Amino acid sequence: MAAGNRSRRWSNLPSDLIHLISTKLPDLSDRVRIRAVCKMWKSSVSASDPSPCLPWFVSSEMDGTDEFVYYCLSSKKTCTIHCPQQRNSHIHGTAGGFILCCKDRHTCPQSISLFNPLTGLEISVPKPKESKKFSVVSNPFQKDLVVILGLQDSKNFVGLIRPGDDAWVIRRLDMMLYEELCVWYNGTCYIKEYGIPPWIGDATTRSVLSTVPLPPPPAPRGPHPILKPRYMLETCGEILLIFMHSTSICELEEIYFSIYRLNKMGEEENYQWVKVRGIGDRMLFLDNVRSFVLKASDFSGFTRNCIYFQSYDYKRLRFLLCRHDLDTGTTKVLPNFSGKYWSTWMIPNLSKSN
Fold first, then answer.
1. What is the mean pLDDT of the chain?
2. Which SUPFAM superfamilies is this protein grouped with (predicted)?
3. Which stretch of 59-68, 194-203, 240-249, 274-283 has the lowest confidence by average pLDDT?
4. Which of 29, 219, 277, 303 has the lowest CB atom count within 10 Å?
């Protein structure tokens, strides 16, 4: 009898209270469990709730299977989603809760689609005629536009497409672009580097707005300093440049970061890089080509001023997921994750539409 009373009290919780509780949960999988309790709880928690959600770390290589393997930051566990329709696909990036899947044959794309592994929604995407090699460079939060960077005949291009479009809008570029050094901000503005000072330009007109000399390299640490990947990203209207360093090829404890903010000087289109000591209340997420930030205060129990990144363990021959604390300068390996291939961040989305 007492158990029955407790059951009725839980089911009689106000709908707005259940919804408020769901917005405090850091991971989308927790919200899925809430929706599975009963019909009233399901109706109280929207599948497309816009409240902040932690990203998932998704394997970038399906390795001949139909399994999407992802890592959950809140539970620190690896889970698997079976998607038979994507067997033998390769992941070329994520955007707006979708994964850009490509089925290749001898490196030439045979079919491309935007696929949501949580809902099974698949949106066919026309193949870009310009390229045999490409990857998504748009922000993973972006839902209405997919931006790719491709290579054909030693020339780069930028492709823009919206779900449902019949063709890519291609911008041919007479220079080399590096995926991790492209920032898409306010639609068409990006920053790039090609053996010359980075510059700010417009992807539509190809006009150069300003050149920005790179900041001087930091003082090397250790006898054999190593410069690892560089990243650029936009956060809260600021452009950040991140250098990843290591004093040893094998020791994760020897990894450190240098962060610079792009400052506009005066009224003219003049800019300079200013070194910053940290990123405040933000968490920075890096993978092999992209980066983005979230506010740590939106997620209970998560550390501010830290960087999540992937590093290769040469002793175990596996990729590890790590967290670097900028306050203490220490690096910690997250448990229960290792992979053979680079992985990418995905923002999970339960919406059944694009």
1. 75
2. F-box domain (SSF81383)
3. 194-203
4. 219
Q: How far apart are CA 61 and CA 82, in angstroms?
A: 14
Residue type, 221: R
Domain coordinates in residue numbering, the chain? 1-50, 52-346
- What's the CATH number of domain 52-346, 2.120.10.80, 3.40.50.1100, 2.60.40.10, 2.60.40.420? 2.120.10.80
**Nearest C-alpha neighbor of 22 from the set 14, 31, 13:** 31
Q: Is 14 helix (H, G, I), strand (E, B) or coil?
A: coil
Question: What average pLDDT score do residues 196-214 get?
Answer: 64
Over the range 314-327, which residues count as b (16 or more CB within 10 Å of their CB) and which as e?
eeeeebbbbbbebe
Which tokens go with 294? 């979230």
Residue with tokens 């220490």: 330
Sheet holding 282-286: strands in order across?
291-295, 282-286, 306-313, 318-325, 330-333
In angstroms, the CA 9 to CA 248 distance is 58
Using DSSP bridges, classify how beta strands 77-82 and 189-192 pair: parallel, antiparallel or unpaired: unpaired
**In the chain, alpha helices (H):** 2-11, 15-23, 28-35, 39-44
151 φ, ψ (degrees, to nearest 5): -135, 130
Can you give the C-alpha Rg of the chain in angstroms?
Answer: 22
